[in-house]
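FAQ: What does a multi-protein file look like?

Like this. Sequence, then tokens, then the next protein.
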Amino acid sequence: MNNSNALYNSLLKDAVNEKNKLTAKTLNKIIKIYESTADDLLKKASTSRGFTRAWTKDYERYIKYKILELNNELAKVSDSSIRTSAEIAASVQGDFLSYINNKYTLDIDKSMLEFAYTTNEKLIGQIIQGGFYKDNRSLSDRIWSYGNQNGKDIQYILTKGMAEQKSYLEIIKDLEKFLKSNTDPDFKKTYTKLYNRKVDYNAQRLLRTAMNHMFYVQNVSNAKNNPYAEAMHWELSAEHGTRQVDRFGEDECDDYANSDYYNLGQGNFPPDKVPVPHPNCLCIQTIVIPKSLDEIGRELGEWINGKDISYLDEWLKVG
């Protein structure tokens, strides 16, 4: 591995660590949003002294209000986190060019450096609005779907509990088990038609996947906009053996890392042919740069001073 690849790899892995920290922070926010909603719903339920039909109707309206509030909060967190994930990925390209600029005192135009740090708004829109996915469902639509289903699950617990003539205290306990993600096996046997077993699970999975996809597509965009990128390399995560192979055998990631479909070297793909990582994938797609830092620094310096280098001229047009 030459020093330009080593530098880019190092910057990318730092960015992946930052993205993982962001993901953990975001998922913690989601848990707190759900906990707050659960507390409010349980507090409201505890004001009843018996689930009359009139009170139940009022409570159903309250559920819809709290689900609306929950969905709006989740949408805000999702939008912000996805944009930040894109910024973290874009910073790899920017930091790489800034390093070369400083190391070789190139005095690259400020606007070009700023462009290297720029996120791809079109790709952000595709992740948020759903264009990245086959069903074209937006992130907001998915959040609302899960939220509405949670509301239906709560109503199901109420209706079933009343039909079985449980006391309101017993029903509140059942609501608490559901809203607090209790894993009581008897509860699961009683309420067999629940869509969700853990109320915040789908939202967490949805956002984790969206953030990973955002990082991936921005990373691919970086490669497409890097005049020195020859390919993208599929690097298996350090945990791939223990998380996947030892437990379930090899998967598509092993194929990507060990094959040479495009005669670019083992595990290498053209930037526009890099496979989309599966959900919860921890593998890294880095950029393959054949030229050393000295070669890149010298060539950029000559270009800045007027030498005609066609692919750098094209890069300038893109920027």
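And here is the next protein:
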Amino acid sequence: MLKQAQRPWYQPASILLLQVKEPLDHPLSHLEIRAISEVGYAAGARVVHVYNSEDHLLNPQPKDSTVFTLVQASAKLFLVLGFSLFLFSIWMDQ
């Protein structure tokens, strides 16, 4: 259903909540949780949360650092602009 949804280009992908409703004899292994998460990502979700039958989150998402992501974005922009200027200077020399 996620892949068939017609979203405009500016709308971000969905956040998917998956819950294992059947009570299990043993807790889900990391491999099983990863497999369930990958199904959600393959369906087009940007974030997948997997819950067990007792409503406990099984795959907590890492917290993004706003400062770190701003530094990363600035560094990428600096590299792209620097590389572009380098290529432009080579092109102008020819």
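Q: Is there any per-entry metadata?
A: Some entries carry free-text notes. For the entry above: Residues 36 and 47 are 12 Å apart (CA to CA).
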